[in-house]
């Protein structure tokens, strides 16, 4: 009898898991294709940068919550050397601890950036200065001259 009950519980749990996975894929279709886009033109109006970046990698993710839907634009921008120096010299930055919960919000970087050793800094005034209209945040890696951004619309 005990074996039957355990088997029933396992089957029900497995059924719930498979159903939730199917629903998850249906509710979050943008998470299926997680490749980064690289064109700057599509997102340039969201930033106040002085110069064109060397590279950018970004994606839009739709997050569905109870009673609302948010679209997040997230990614990495490899800055021009002039923008890197401007950010470094004109804002007060705080180094984020590698165990900081903020860093859990960073997406896995594109393959081209994965081998870099990244140290992230944050600055509220730089975030307010760089982002034009949206709610979001940026982190700055001074050594590699890039920012990670997350913008909510």
At a glance:
This protein has helices at 2-27, 81-90, 124-130; strands spanning 55-65, 68-78, 94-95, 121-122, 135-141, 146-152. With 153 residues, it is α+β, with helices and mostly antiparallel strands. The protein has two domains: 1-32; 33-152, no CATH class.
Spell out the key features of this protein.
single chain; 153 residues; alpha+beta; 2 domains; six-stranded antiparallel sheet; 3 helices; 26% strand
Strand content: 25-35%
Number of domains: 2
- Main β sheet profile: 6 strands, antiparallel
Distance between the termini: 54 Å
- Uncertain segments of ≥5 residues (pLDDT<50)? 22-33
Mean pLDDT score = 79
What does the model show?
The chain is of the alpha+beta class and 153 residues long. It folds into two domains: 1-32; 33-152, no CATH class. The chain has three helices and six strands; from the N terminus they run H-E-E-H-E-E-H-E-E. The protein has a six-stranded antiparallel β-sheet, with helices on one face. A hairpin with a 2-residue loop joins strand 1 (55-65) and strand 2 (68-78). The longest helix is centred in the N-terminal third of the chain and has 26 residues, at 2-27. It starts with a helix and ends with a strand.
Secondary-structure map with pairings?
Layout: H1 2-27, E1 55-65, E2 68-78, H2 81-90, E3 94-95, E4 121-122, H3 124-130, E5 135-141, E6 146-152
Antiparallel strand pairs: 1-2, 2-6, 3-4, 4-5, 5-6
